[in-house]
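Field: COMPLEX_INPUT
Field: COMPONENT_COUNT = three
Field: RESIDUE_TOTAL = 679
Field: MODE = joint
Values follow.
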Amino acid sequence: MIIDWSTPLRHWDYFAGGAIMTLWLTVVIFLLSSIIGVLLAVLRYNKRTYPLYAISTVYVELIRNTPALVQVFLIYFGLPQFGISFTPLQAGIIALTINNSAYMSEIIRAGIASIPRGQWDAGKALGLTYAQMFRHIIFPQAFKHIFPVSANQFIMVIFNTSLLAILDVKELTDRALILNGQTFRTLEIFVFVTGLYYAIYFVVSTFSHWVNRRLFTSHAK
Amino acid sequence: MISLRHLNKSFGSLQILHNVSLHVGKGEVVVVIGPSGSGKSTMLRCINQLETMDSGEIYLDGQPLAAAHKNAARKIGTEIGMVFQSFNLFPHLTVFQNIALGPRHVRKLNQQQVKDIVETLLAKVGLLDKKDRYPEQLSGGQQQRIAIARALAMQPKIMLFDEPTSALDPELVGEVLAVMKDLAKEGMTMIVVTHEMNFAREVADRIVVMADGRIIEEGQPNDIFTAPQNPRTREFLKAVIQE
Amino acid sequence: MDWSVIYEYRYLLWNGFIVTCKLSITAILLGTLAGIAVSMARTSRIAWLKIPLTAYVQLFRGSPLLIQLFMFYFGLSYIGVNIDIFKATALVFTLYAGAYISEIIKAGIESIPKGQFEAAKALGFSYVLLMFRIVLPQTLKVSLPPLIGFNLTLIKDSSIASIVGYAELLHQGKTIMNMSGKPFEVLLFISLIYFVICYPLSMFVAWMERRIYIR
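Field: COMPLEX_OUTPUT
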């Protein structure tokens, strides 16, 4: 058995394309799921709007307590049973967006709930509307908590996209498997791809720590 | 100027306010004292609609304050100012921005007007040099003075103080009380819930004693402190004046 | 929708469920042991262990579980090591779990005020005594919610092993899907099983976090 690193290296552009696909998928999924997540967080914030609170809670709990892979299967293989079919790419994005939106909603909701009640009181006592309170008082403070946890979640989505390899969407893991099927240089290929994933992880992680430090340090004496 | 009539408020099965009625005239300084849990804070919070009362009416300058209206607390915020025990300054904004927020976004004044108001008030509470600092860089006494300036920036008709010095270290209490005394001298209508008996004696036009969710006694400071009528009042004063 | 397919294939589903449990429990138990050991080593003064262990943790947290499974399962047989699928999968899951758990526990250890370490040193405590009697009991209390939360993630992640051919619940589900032509009912039922296991645990975690916060 000879270890031959030239195989993965020769195909570096093929893998680079895979990495770009992975990142593109991640960004699309993360953005869409954040928007849905904000909506869900608002619905779940107050028990007063009961029917909406109940529906969104059921949605969030169902999604968070079942595996992402099962959700992908349900969308891609299960729905055609009712005549709804998606392309692999659409199904993958929809499934992972639904999945991530449940987690994002909890992150956002927890961030807002962590603001002490006194801040709301002070805002009301000054005569601010809810919209104004959110914009000037609540959201800036909530974001300090939401950002680092969201960055972590972003990384989770990057890794979740690897599951879409089974749908052959040509992201990084999928390409690794394809090249492996052609050249059988398994160890070299997977070491290379692991390295690529780690590089992405490292960059995202470092960047988010840097942003966290720059924007959100305390002004303490 | 402001009248409370037959206020009742319960939290779940616990009734906090029993049929509370109070009238405060323009320029009057009313100090509310009494044991913990007597409903003093709740009464204050009902006035500016941070809590909604179960029954009763509140009249400001003869006009009823519509309690059921969702935006009630906010409209009232522009007429009634409140200073909280835990200051509740906005930690992510500078001192200047904290005070400017109300005038800028609620009263919709322009930048120059806002600047004038903020700087005048900061000078009044003696903290003009701190205008670009953040709350966490200041002492408790300084933060509470900023909180008073923030409430005053809305030019309210009445100022409510909910135990403004209870969360402060003893040596910082004086600077806050000094600001409150000046405010009283200038003729601001004030309702103050506090445990600072000396302040009450010096500054109050009238003392109101609450216990168990009811007003049990009202009167001139001298009368209340030297010759309280209600036995409960006597009990409370005895315990407090010990210190 | 035709739910009789669930009854028809109940034996396959039950087998899959048992295998999922086997994998999850193994990963949780061994992963926790590994995590405790690694976190203790990383917070000790043994310098030469820190770098390789940090590399291990970074690697397993910085790449997808699926890639790790492929790497081990295909890679090992590529270099001639023959290993049965259960052992290989269990190994990867243990390493994966160990990395995440060690981070959780390490954070817990670092949250203990330095004064306690100093006091223990002043009292002449050995490192082992310090760890087992003082540090770990407190750490586990603080770390318990995120630990259980991660265990939930592990249970859900066990479904990923189906892709490499490990015969856990989802893998059986795929087989049944193809045989019966009723993917939706099968997948929904499998989701339900995961939900029934995970939801009570997640409620328990939420309850625990509320209690700690109120304190």
